[in-house]
């Protein structure tokens, strides 16, 4: 997102926290479902979202347009938030849709936080991302936007088979309905990062040639905490082809200390 959209989303996040702070579990759950559903609708309606995100249109008109579209279809809190979304300034129309998705995720993660299962939800999302990485056919089927969303959600339910928390399931269902030509694996990774951020942590994706001991994991977390000056949530993946060493990715920064990379660097040096 560009600066205007980032500023809009930051303000909306704060507004949402205030709106659902004292709301019941059912109300917060409804907000998460409502905002996710509206994001999916606007993602498929370019003409409508273009008008709603057009800063040349007076703010009050944009708010009234949004309220007219969804009044009676969403909860009172959700309708108020939708008005705030329409009244905000977005750099691109799709940023508004992305912002709605982020707010929907935020509401559902608040539920997990209240139930003290946020770390479980984060781990479940990460494990599902690993399943997608290991099973390309499944990832293709779930990410096929040409297929009806209902059928893909049914397939997701079959794969999950009651092995995840309800909040995890809802987040993944929203991801399926709002792909917009994005790989599902990418959206799931974003969900992992949002869950970690809710716990005020950064996600470090670590690829190793073999399993790490508990002591090695803790030592790595300590080092990364010191480097990034933030608590780290470690996500480990195994790749025997690395031969040894680690590849660490935090955000867009990659630290490649694998034996495979060092061998490749040596080969390139010798071939000069």
Largest sheet, in brief, is: 4 strands, mixed
Number of helices: 13
The strand order across the widest sheet is 2-1-3-4
Poorly predicted regions: none
Domain count = 3
What's the helical proportion of residues?
Answer: 55-70%
Compute the number of strand runs.
4
Approximate strand percentage: 5-15%
Rg calculated over all Cα atoms: 21 Å
The structure class reads alpha+beta
H-E string: HHHHHHHHHHHEHEEEH
Set down the secondary structure blueprint.
Layout: H1 3-20, H2 25-43, H3 46-52, H4 59-70, H5 76-87, H6 93-114, H7 118-134, H8 136-142, H9 149-160, H10 166-177, H11 184-198, E1 202-208, H12 214-228, E2 232-238, E3 246-250, E4 253-256, H13 259-270
Parallel strand pairs: 1-2
Antiparallel strand pairs: 1-3, 3-4
Q: What report would you give on this structure?
A:
- The protein is an alpha+beta fold.
- The protein has 3 domains: 1-114; 117-199; 202-270, no CATH class.
- The protein has 13 helices and 4 strands.
- It has helices at 3-20, 25-43, 46-52, 59-70, 76-87, 93-114, 118-134, 136-142, 149-160, 166-177, 184-198, 214-228, 259-270, and strands spanning 202-208, 232-238, 246-250, 253-256.
- Strands 2-1-3-4 form a 4-stranded mixed beta sheet, sandwiched between helices.
- A hairpin with a 2-residue loop joins strand 3 (246-250) and strand 4 (253-256).
- Helix 1 runs parallel beside helix 6 (93-114) and helix 6 crosses helix 11 (184-198).
- The longest helix has 22 residues, at 93-114.
- It is globular, with a radius of gyration of 21 Å.
- It starts with a helix and ends with a helix.
């Amino acid at each position: 997102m560009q600066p205007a959209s980032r500023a809009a989303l930051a303000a909306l996040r704060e507004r949402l926290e205030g709106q659902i702070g004292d709301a019941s579990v059912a109300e917060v759950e409804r907000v998460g479902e409502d905002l996710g559903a509206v994001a999916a609708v606007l993602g498929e309606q370019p003409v409508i979202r273009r008008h709603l995100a057009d800063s040349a249109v007076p703010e009050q008109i944009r708010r009234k347009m949004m309220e007219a579209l969804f009044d009676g279809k969403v909860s009172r809190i959700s309708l108020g938030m939708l008005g705030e979304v329409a009244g905000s300034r977005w750099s691109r129309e799709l940023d508004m849709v992305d912002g709605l998705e982020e707010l929907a995720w935020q509401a559902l993660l608040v539920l997990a936080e209240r139930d003290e299962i946020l770390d479980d939800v984060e781990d479940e999302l990460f494990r599902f991302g690993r399943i997608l990485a290991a099973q390309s056919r499944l990832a293709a089927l779930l990410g096929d936007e040409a297929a009806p969303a209902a059928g893909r959600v049914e397939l997701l339910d079959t794969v999950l088979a009651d092995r995840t928390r309800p909040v995890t399931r809802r987040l993944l269902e929203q991801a399926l309905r709002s792909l917009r030509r994005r790989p599902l694996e990418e959206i799931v990774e974003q969900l992992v990062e949002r869950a970690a951020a809710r716990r005020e942590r950064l996600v470090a994706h670590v690829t190793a040639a073999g399993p790490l001991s508990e002591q090695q994991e803790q030592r790595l977390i300590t080092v990364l905490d010191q480097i990034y000056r933030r608590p780290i949530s470690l996500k480990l993946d195994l790749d025997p082809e690395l031969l040894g060493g680690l590849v660490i990715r935090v955000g867009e920064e990659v630290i490649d200390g694998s034996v495979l990379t060092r061998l490749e660097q040596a080969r390139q040096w010798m071939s000069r």
